[in-house]
Specification:
mainly alpha
């Protein structure tokens, strides 16, 4: 029970991301939001590392491993967060749909693990991929199976591209198997430096209002940073596979947040699309016994 209580904290927090980013993007340039949010994340992760006494872990990494983590942060976490947040800035009214499409990332892990990790391609993976992309197709058509709705297409493409980069980042991370918390700190530092350079060059900076500072702290320091402490505690206290699968509750909760806060309804097509998208990776976890012939 304790493991599930620990896991509930980050899930409840992570589900608020679409709402918080949508609110911030209405006032600040989205790249500046990324930059400041990542800065707060680094501060929060530093405190978490201190509480868990993980600073000594950095001595175990070689210079090559540190360099690899910095590259992964710059080529994985940075483009993922950029594209994910950009989707909400491009179409605030379609934040729920963009977040659903972003949950293609688990099936991208399945797809990319085939060439990168040399994993096999079985019937469950083929079916799972088909189900996940059928969910995206449902979002694009709004339930009208032969007609595309293109008004929010840039946002949907941005969310889908972000999902690809997170899938690629996750596979590469699995390949190297760095310790999760310290690696996330290094990834965040690399992403922060990239965001700083891009934000300063892309557009004039805007001084946030008091409300925006609070939202930036909430998103960066609490949602993206502090939540990792509870996630790690949850993984330690319970069955890792079962706890990890609870993350699939996040997009459902995100729809509820958006519906309550922005006074929008949750559509049946959204729920069906989300179920289809998540059915793909969940199918990979199901073990189907085959009875051998005598």
């Amino acid at each position: 029970m304790r493991a599930y209580l620990f896991a509930a904290v980050p899930i409840v927090l992570w589900a608020s991301t679409p709402l918080l980013v949508t609110e911030l993007a209405a006032e600040l340039p989205i790249l500046q939001v990324n930059w400041l949010v990542t800065g707060f994340s680094i501060v929060s992760l530093s405190l978490t590392i201190t509480v868990l006494k993980r600073w000594g872990k950095f001595r175990d990494y070689s210079k090559k491993e540190m360099g690899t983590m910095l590259v992964l942060g710059a080529t994985g976490l940075f483009p993922y967060t950029t594209l994910y947040y950009l989707a909400f800035a491009l179409a605030p009214a379609a934040a729920g749909n963009s977040n659903i499409i972003n949950y293609l990332w688990p099936i991208w892990i399945v797809i990319l693990a085939i060439p990168i990790l040399k994993e096999g391609l079985g019937w469950k993976k083929i079916l799972g991929i088909a189900l996940s992309f059928a969910g995206v197709y449902l979002i694009l058509t709004g339930g009208q199976w032969i007609r595309f709705r293109l008004e929010h297409l840039p946002a949907y493409l941005s969310a889908a591209a972000g999902a690809f980069f997170w899938g690629l980042f996750s596979v590469q991370n699995k390949r190297h198997r760095f310790e999760a918390l310290t690696a996330m700190f290094v990834y965040s530092v690399a992403a922060f430096l990239c965001f700083a350079a891009v934000a300063l060059l892309a557009s004039p900076l805007v001084w946030p209002s008091t409300r925006s500072w609070l939202l930036l702290f909430l998103l960066g320091g609490i949602v993206n940073g502090f939540s990792y402490l509870f996630w790690i505690l949850a993984l330690r206290a319970g069955d890792t596979a079962k706890i990890a699968n609870l993350v699939y509750l996040t997009p459902f909760l995100a729809l509820i947040y958006l519906a309550v806060s922005l006074d929008v309804s949750i559509k049946a097509t959204q729920l069906v699309a989300l179920i289809l998208i998540l059915a793909g990776p969940i199918l990979q976890e199901i073990r189907i016994p085959f009875k051998q012939k005598d």
